[in-house]
Amino acid sequence: MALFKKNQSLDHDPAFTLTLPNVRKGTTYLGKNLNINGNINGEDDVQILGNHNGNVELSGKLEIHESAVVRGIVKAKNIIVSGLVEGDLDADEKLTIQNTAKVTGNIKTPVITVHEGAFFEGEVKTNKD
Asked: Per the structure, how many domains does the chain have?
């Protein structure tokens, strides 16, 4: 007994039916209700909405959303922080700390933006190539 016709297809990709902030092709989303322990390495862009304990090293863009908590050393091409980070941040191009962010750790980046209302405790080193 077949449940689907042989040529039947869906009008949409079922993996992308959720409404996510700034959905982009080639971006990995770590959901709001996830608790991840371990390191993340890769080339794609990543958006973290949940909790992550471990280091992150990306050659793409990293967004740490307002609901996210990240504990570990973070390195990426571009980093946007809106949530809580406890650990050092190293951005190859640019780091943005939004007004909802709480960052405790040292920062290394050529360009930094800290929005009014953000909490930051640590040292900043701007490295110009």
From this structure: 1
Kindly report, residue by residue over 58-89, the tens digit of the pLDDT.
Answer: 999 999 999 999 999 999 999 999 999 999 99
HSE, CB side, 13 Å, CA atoms: give it for residue 13. Answer: 4
Identify the domain containing residue 61 by its residue range. Answer: 31-122
Q: Is residue 115 in a domain?
A: yes
Q: Report if residue 41 sits inside a domain.
A: yes
Domain assignment of residue 10, yes or no: no
**Rama region for 13: left / alpha / beta (φ>0; ψ in -120 to 50; rest):** beta
* Structure tokens belonging to residue 62: 């990293």
What pTM was estimated for this model as a whole?
Answer: 0.79
Distance CA 92, CA 101 (A): 20
How far apart (Å, rounded) are the C-alpha atoms in residues 69 and 24?
22
Residue-level pLDDT at 29: 76
User: What is the gyration radius of the CA atoms in the chain, in angstroms?
Assistant: 18
Q: Is residue 47 part of a domain?
A: yes
- Take residue 6 and report the two structure tokens written for it: 């042989």
